[in-house]
Design a protein that fits this description.
The complex is a heterodimer of chains A (294) and B (128). Chain A is mainly β and 294 residues long. Helices cover 3% and strands 60% of the residues of chain A. Chain A has 1 helix and 17 strands. Chain A has a 12-stranded antiparallel β-barrel with strand order 1-3-4-6-7-8-9-11-12-15-16-17. Chain A has a 3-stranded antiparallel beta sheet with strand order 10-13-14, with no helix packed on it. The longest helix of chain A has 10 residues. Chain B is 9% helix and 52% strand. Chain B contains 1 helix and 9 strands; from the N terminus they run αβββββββββ. The longest helix of chain B has 12 residues. Chain B is elongated and about 40 Å long. The chains are: A mainly beta (294), B mainly beta (128). At the A-B interface, loops of A face strand 5 of B.
């Protein structure tokens, strides 16, 4: 139902507004460039604790005597390559703390790098009544340390999945000053690595927000990530599909002409069936964004 | 009836069991029989005791065993490979069998003795 509502909202005519075009630029993740920007760089710090996990059958189970805490520091950048084309990159550093019983373990290292590109097929607001449409492309590079390469007892120094991934998607966005709604959908294909291949992925983000006061944008929405079954030596590993649902809320505050402070929280209700083969993590993020104007 | 119950009970005793969380035996492949016990069966380092029987049912010494622990849903194991020590009289000990996180783990045992080879897979649901 929420997906249908979002699609309907995207079709409702809206008045064009200069500020409305760029409400969501820093609302979700790395985001995108505003029309007056040709470069944005940023830094973010995310801290998340796992309170439990979902089994392969989707049964939720709370952790007892187990700690799994991840601190992720990321540096990112977006550059305008052409009028409607921008490229981006993100470099994460992962710090993990785990504990079980009398065992304490920690580790850190470079995570998997990600590269991206966004092509505004139909720029937001260019045709009244029609949502903006952008095509997105991405790649994940296996620059992190895999769990099999870990040198600690609880694998706390593992920072990546160990495989290349290619992503393609579409982003739809509509604004009615001061409100906006956005729908992102992206498919991921994992390349084979070490005799195995992760299943294809599908990521959906439905977000909406508004400018509370000039320069302060609040946004929220659900995120759904699905991953197909893994294949090992050409055979499907039964029960290895994954599912993850997150509910997020974010604030983006322009603290200067070029600077934006970003903050957000994401979690998932610990309910049977909402996840599968994934840990349930609550993550808080704080970041800073600096932009150069054209 | 009593004889049937006794026979069923004896068969149950022959099943591999892990201490801590119960292990389920996937079908064994090959001519060997594996009796196993995992201590303590929790996150971290564990000791897997294996009693190996040959095709004739007798305890089998001198076999080469390889043990590997993986998480089938996640596609990874742990960073450590267990060392298998032969204790004699068909007894072997693998350490450390490391479970790095909660979830379903598979412990694969592969044995070779002369021209014979076989294996089995144990499944553990490790709690966090």
């Amino acid at each position: 139902m929420p997906l249908l509502l979002a699609l309907l909202l995207l079709l409702v005519p809206g008045a064009a507004a200069a500020s409305a075009c760029c409400l969501s630029t820093s609302a979700f993740g790395t985001g995108r460039l505003a029309v007056w920007e040709d470069l944005a760089v940023g830094f973010s710090s995310s801290l998340g604790d796992a309170a439990g996990d979902w089994s392969e059958r989707g049964t939720w189970r709370a952790y007892g005597d187990y700690l799994d805490r991840e601190w992720r520091l990321s540096a990112w950048g977006i550059y305008r390559l052409a009028e409607h084309l921008e490229i981006s990159g993100r470099v994460p550093w992962v710090i993990t703390e785990r504990a079980a019983g009398s065992i304490d373990d920690s580790g850190n290292g470079l995570g998997d790098l990600s590269l991206g590109a966004r092509w505004d097929l139909l720029p937001l607001g260019s045709i009244e009544g029609i949502p903006g449409v952008a095509l997105t492309f991405g790649a994940t590079l296996p620059t992190g340390r895999t769990a099999d390469e870990s040198e600690t007892i609880l694998g706390a120094d593992a920072t990546g999945r160990g495989a290349w991934a290619l992503t393609a998607g579409v982003s739809l966005e509509k604004t009615w000053d001061p409100f906006f709604v956005r729908l992102d959908a992206a498919g991921t294909y994992w390349l084979p690595s070490a005799g195995q291949r992760f299943g294809p992925g599908l990521d959906l983000l439905l977000g909406g927000g508004m400018e509370l006061v000039p320069g302060l944008v609040a946004s929220a929405g659900p995120r759904l990530s699905l991953e197909g079954a893994r294949h090992d030596a050409g055979r499907e590993v039964v029960g290895s599909a994954a599912r993850e649902l997150g509910l997020g809320a974010n604030l983006a505050w322009s603290i200067g002409d070029h600077l934006t402070l970003q903050g957000g929280v994401e979690t998932a209700p610990p309910v049977d069936g909402l996840g599968q083969n994934r840990a349930q993590r609550t993550t808080a993020t704080l970041g800073l964004r600096w932009a150069h104007f054209r | 009836m009593k004889l049937l119950a006794a026979a069923l009970f004896s068969l149950a005793l022959l099943c591999s069991c892990g201490t801590g969380d119960a292990a389920e035996n996937d079908p064994t492949e090959g001519p060997f029989t594996f009796h196993t016990s995992l201590e303590p069966g929790t996150i971290g380092e564990n000791t897997l005791s294996i009693h190996l029987h040959g095709p004739d049912g007798a305890s089998l010494d001198g076999a080469t065993l390889h043990v590997e622990a993986t998480m089938p849903a996640h596609g990874h194991g742990s960073g450590t490979s267990p060392t298998v020590e032969a204790l004699g009289d068909g007894e072997y000990r693998a350490f450390p069998v490391t479970f790095t996180m909660p979830g379903k783990w598979e412990v694969k045992i592969h044995a070779t003795s002369g021209d014979l080879e076989g294996g089995t897979v144990l499944t553990f649901d490790v709690e966090g």
